[in-house]
TrEMBL record:
Its main location: cytoplasm. Belongs to the vinculin/alpha-catenin family. GO terms for cellular component: cytoplasm. PANTHER family: ALPHA-CATULIN (PTHR46342:SF1). SUPFAM superfamilies: alpha-catenin/vinculin-like. This is Alpha-catulin. It is found in: Cytoplasm. InterPro entries: Alpha-catenin/vinculin-like_sf, Alpha_catenin, CTNNAL1, Vinculin/catenin. The keyword Protein biosynthesis does not apply. The keyword Transmembrane helix does not apply.
Length: 722
């Protein structure tokens, strides 16, 4: 809105329509600033240490908004301005000054709000740490139950704060690190409960103490990492050393090689040679690995040798071209560039194949969890010798899985996935010894129910990580095949009273095998529709188009719902599914709003059809919202609700498959010069209106970890109190 005003061109003739439009822009800015400032003032009232600064910034913003509204109050003018009535036409510098003041004060409000968010997270972390110290020192069950109940509530609050922050991080690498830390905290909360209880039950057992200490140590490290990410700092001013993968090395190397087309002198041949050496050094992780097949090892060595030869040829032609730019030499250089890049692509494909085939085979081999089952049985029998035998086998399995994670990191394709691989490696490294200490404790106390429960919890964490690895492997393959990831919404600006609400937990429910079989056909249809929608969005030239982005977001959510029908993915319980359905419906409503805005620009026979389809979309999304929010009780009723949500999601996706090509066709007509679109208006009230919904509950992200954390904390504290 402000840009429209600043760029407004003075014309001797001003139509009523122009004057009204200018006034509407000014009023829209004033209203938007008013709403923004109201939230800022409410935040200030809840945070006294920054109240004065925040209040001053809010006052400045409101004043600037009112000034803009006054200067654009020109709708009633049908004659040249008098000296007594200053407007945008007589004082454009006034609008510029007001706009600068507004942007400056709004930025200040946002920075102060961000400080408050960081302070909330640090305060929450400190409370968690203080309670953890108390938990470590307790000597009675009664005292432990009381403190753990408090600890559970503090962890839920911390999970909410950090979940919102994670969604708002723009750096995908930090977002992945935050997700990894929060996942550790969620899983360790349950481990801390059983490990502490085991230690209280068997205070003289060394293996029980080692088991408990390991959990507390891991939680403290995860809490520390969260604060590092939030405050963008590292202890002792250390710089974070990013691990270099083969994929990222090849990508950078190819960019440098292809840059020679534009500039022959922008880097030295030594730089290119060094970059290739580093890449080839990393391929030794594959060629030296005992788990790389002979065929893959031979191919990688052969391609490494070929890459050196291609680079030598490239450097030779490149040096000649620097001295003499003849047509033949430039053609030879182009051929050398293409051959070098092709060789690197083949090397990338080969290491990807080696890593993913090894991972796939290993994950299939360990799906039966035979070693874990044997540890549980021999532990209950008190057979120390057999437990020692199976702990050795678990250690071997751990080494295989750690090696798998290291190789997958090289071919993960994106920094977030690299970090996920590193997190998985750490999880296997830590959880393996913890399972061993838990099994030893059970073998020493075979009749102990709590020792048996403790081993179960650590084994479940291991099984869960193996399941996550299957999902990670699929994501790595998706990146290799060029599929896009999903976008997220912004959440963590402090809303007045937001984190003070009572946190009510619902009982988590999973679909059993029979229910998954019943819903499989519907899930498959949903999967096919997501593929169709992805195909349609890829046809759009402008991938940043609002309609495309909403379509991609809905497709990603629908795919998550399809995975749920198979018992896979991030949606673990029916509550997760219903929460996802609500977000999906909200995204559909936003798409409908974007379609209405788009239809305002359309001069075409298709406009009535576009509006009709948009209305259908609103109706279907409304129905899904109602279904997802409806309260049900009992297994049968819950399954019926799941079925209805998937069915309504499928109907929306079917409609989306019709809408996307229609909108794409209208845009193409416009580019072809058929005039189906009129110029976009200089102001967009719908943008202002949608801004008011920025802090509604529907904007909550898919904080599945929080949901399950709330659930098991509530259930555990209830059971403990009994």
């Amino acid at each position: 809105q402000i840009t429209t005003l600043i760029n407004h061109k003075d014309k001797p003739k001003r139509s009523d329509k122009t004057l009204q439009a200018i006034q509407r822009v000014g009023q829209a800015v004033k209203l938007a600033v008013g709403r923004f400032v109201t939230v800022g003032e409410a935040i200030a009232n809840e945070n006294h240490e920054l109240k004065e600064e925040m209040s001053v910034a809010c006052i400045e913003a409101r004043r600037a908004g009112e000034t803009i509204a006054q200067l654009t109050d020109v709708a009633s003018l049908d004659h040249p301005e008098s000296d007594s009535h200053i407007t945008i036409f007589t004082d454009k510098t006034g609008v510029v000054k007001a706009a600068r003041l507004l942007l400056s004060s709004v930025t200040k409000v946002l920075v102060l709000a961000d400080k408050i968010v960081i302070k909330q997270i640090i305060t929450s972390r400190n409370k968690v740490l203080a309670t953890m110290e108390q938990l470590e020192k307790v000597s009675s069950f009664q005292e432990f139950v009381q403190i753990f109940s408090q600890f559970g509530n503090e962890m839920v609050e911390f999970a909410h704060l950090t979940g919102d922050r994670q969604n708002d991080l723009k750096d995908e690498k930090k977002k992945a690190r935050m997700a990894a830390s929060r996942a550790v905290l969620e899983k360790c909360t349950m481990m801390l409960l059983t490990a502490s209880k085991t230690c209280l039950r068997h205070p003289d057992c060394e293996s029980a103490r080692i088991n408990k200490d390991g959990v507390f140590h891991r939680m403290r490290l995860a809490l520390e990492q969260v604060i590092e990410i939030v405050t963008d700092s590292r202890p002792n001013g250390e710089n974070e050393m990013a691990p270099i993968s083969i994929y990222s090395g090849i990508k950078e190397f190819k960019n440098k090689v292809e840059g020679l087309r534009e500039n022959l002198c922008f880097l030295s041949k030594e730089n290119l040679s060094t970059m290739l050496e580093v890449i080839l050094e990393h391929t030794e992780d594959f060629t030296d690995s005992a788990y790389t097949s002979h065929e893959h090892r031979e191919h990688i060595l052969e391609l490494s040798k070929q890459a050196k030869m291609e680079l030598e040829q490239l450097v030779s032609v490149w040096m000649q071209a620097q001295n003499q730019k003849t047509k033949d030499l430039m053609e030879d250089l182009e051929v050398a560039i293409l051959k070098t890049c092709q060789c690197m692509n083949e090397l990338k494909r080969e290491v990807h194949s080696a890593a993913t085939s090894f991972a796939s085979d290993l994950l299939k081999y360990h799906t039966d969890h035979m070693v874990l089952k044997a540890l549980k049985i021999t532990g209950v029998e008190g057979n120390l010798e057999a437990v020692a035998e199976y702990t050795c086998k678990l250690s071997e399995q751990k080494e295989q899985l750690v090696e798998m994670c290291r190789l997958l990191r090289h071919v993960s394709g994106t920094e977030p996935l690299e970090i996920t691989c590193i997190h998985a490696e750490d999880t296997f490294q830590v959880t393996g010894p913890q399972i061993i200490s838990a099994a030893e404790t059970l073998a020493l106390h075979p009749s102990s129910k709590i020792a048996k429960e403790n081993l179960e919890v650590f084994c479940e964490a291991w099984e869960s990580q193996l399941s996550d690895m299957s999902l990670l492997l699929r994501e790595i393959n998706d990146v290799f095949e060029g599929r896009r990831g999903e976008k997220r919404v912004y959440l963590s600006l402090p809303r007045p009273g937001k984190h003070n609400a009572n946190l009510k937990a619902l009982k988590p429910v999973k679909l059993d095998t029979e229910e998954q079989a019943k819903i499989a056909k519907l899930g498959l249809e949903l999967h096919l529709l997501t593929s169709d929608v992805d195909s349609e969005t890829e046809k759009w030239e402008d991938q940043e188009n609002e309609i495309v982005q909403h379509g991609q977001g809905m497709s990603s959510m629908a795919y998550s719902m399809y995975l749920f029908t198979r018992g896979e993915g991030l949606l673990k319980t029916t509550q997760d599914l219903f929460h996802q359905a609500e977000i999906f419906a909200t995204e559909g409503a936003k798409l409908a709003s974007a379609l209405h805005a788009f239809s305002d620009q359309v001069h075409d026979d298709d406009k009535p059809l576009l509006l009709l389809e948009a209305e259908k979309l609103i109706s279907l999304c409304s129905q899904l919202q109602i279904t997802a929010k409806a309260s049900v009780q009992g297994k049968s009723a819950t399954f019926t609700k799941v079925d209805a949500c998937i069915l309504k999601t499928r109907n929306i996706m079917t409609l989306l498959c019709q809408l996307l090509p229609l909108c794409c066709k209208l845009l193409r007509k416009n580019k072809a010069g058929n005039g189906c679109l009129k110029p976009a208006p200089p102001w967009r009230e719908d943008r202002i209106r949608t801004g008011t919904n920025a802090h509604t509950p529907e904007r909550r992200a898919e904080t599945f970890g929080i949901k399950s954390l709330e659930n098991h904390v509530t259930n555990m504290t209830f059971l403990e109190s009994k």
